[in-house]
Amino acid sequence: MVNRIVCAGLLLLLILSVSPAAGQSRAQNKAEEYYSIEGDVNVWTTAPVLRQKTGMSPELLKMRFGRHRDFDRIVYELDGEPIGYYITYSEPPFQGEASEDVTKVRGKAFVEIALYPVVASDENLNASERLLAQQNKIRMPLIREVQTIEWFEAELRHVVGLRRRTPFRVQVFSNPTRLVVDFRH
């Protein structure tokens, strides 16, 4: 009888000591997914949106643009999960950290999109730059122009020139992985 009570007591002590630790471990892992968060994703907003977590740098495969009935869209297709991005309204002048050159962007309102760290092959970078040049000739309802401000130390920064200040929406899709920024008409 005493052995059963001792065994039951030890089992209860073991369960109580392990359970909170497991719960705390799960909470820490979820909290550590992003170590820096600002703003909301999947909602229309004009506030900055920031996400940062640790992991392997994804590869930028390609960019695309889309014109939809209620919004214009920019898509960054990635090989791997985006581990750092920052989308915010900004004001000129637009200048990279590694350059003294100022980049002019057509528009009345401006949104900066930064992905970091991110890698890309020369082929994918050249294809993206060609796409930007073509896209800037096409008239979209809201997007006037997109310019690369910087590709330096695994940070890619674009500035989107808009016809007016409007809410944007940031989303991440999978299969394939895409960081999507929509601008509401």
Describe the overall structure.
- It is a single chain.
- The chain is built from two helices and twelve strands.
- The chain has helices at residues 2-33, 122-135, and strands at 36-38, 49-52, 59-67, 71-79, 84-90, 94-95, 102-103, 109-115, 143-152, 155-162, 168-173, 177-184.
- The protein has a six-stranded antiparallel β-sheet, with helices on one face.
- A hairpin with a 2-residue loop joins strand 9 (143-152) and strand 10 (155-162).
- The radius of gyration is 23 Å and the shape is globular.
Concise account of the structure shown:
Helices cover 25% and strands 41% of the residues. By secondary structure, the chain is α+β, with helices and mostly antiparallel strands. It has a six-stranded antiparallel sheet with strand order 1-2-5-8-10-9, covered by helices on one side. It has a four-stranded antiparallel sheet with strand order 3-4-12-11.
